[in-house]
Automatic annotation (TrEMBL):
Residues 83-149 form the Urate oxidase N-terminal domain. This is Urate oxidase N-terminal domain-containing protein. The chain crosses the membrane at residues 6-25, 46-71, 83-102. Pfam families: Urate_ox_N (PF06181). Keywords: Membrane, Transmembrane, Transmembrane helix. InterPro entries: Urate_ox_N (IPR010389).
Length: 154
């Protein structure tokens, strides 16, 4: 159904866009924000809203992707595409990272920022899971594009 495809692409763009924002903008800017005294307002006001959209867009991307696949659109001439299956597996792994590693550690980081605690272990875990997702997004996106353009031929 086109609705699943449309929603899948829409929330997928939101998810991956936020992923790149966190990895390419926030990570680079946070030390400067700490120096300028802007880290606490950012952590209290912007970050919770961005993380809400981030984790829920990840969930909706997986749900709409599975719905799109189950509706029969994840096939090439009736044969399940290996590219779409690889992309789905990578997407599910990435969503798992969001919900089970990044989000629990970000909750600790936000609470720690409010209390003045550094929480370097939680920061490191969230950073590594987020960076892993950024790298996994490249083959995942390649698989999703290939699935709609003839696959990889295997």
């Amino acid at each position: 159904m086109w609705v699943f495809e449309f929603l899948h692409v829409l929330v997928g763009i939101l998810w991956i866009g936020l992923l790149y924002f966190f990895n390419l903008v926030q990570v680079q800017s946070m030390p400067k924000m700490v120096e300028a005294g802007a880290a606490k307002p950012y952590t209290q006001i912007i970050l919770p809203k961005a993380l809400f959209l981030f984790r829920h867009s990840a969930l909706l991307t997986v749900i709409t992707g599975i719905a799109y696949y189950v509706a029969g659109r994840g096939t090439v001439e009736g044969i399940p595409s290996s590219a779409i299956m690889i992309g789905m597996m990578l997407g599910i792994i990435m969503a798992g990272n969001v919900w089970f590693i990044i989000w629990p550690n970000q909750k600790k980081i936000i609470a720690g920022a409010l209390e003045g605690d550094a929480l370097t272990g939680a920061k490191r875990k969230a950073f590594l899971a987020s960076r892993t997702n950024a790298w996994l997004s490249l083959p995942m996106l390649a698989c999703m594009v290939a699935a709609n353009h003839g696959g990889f031929g295997f």
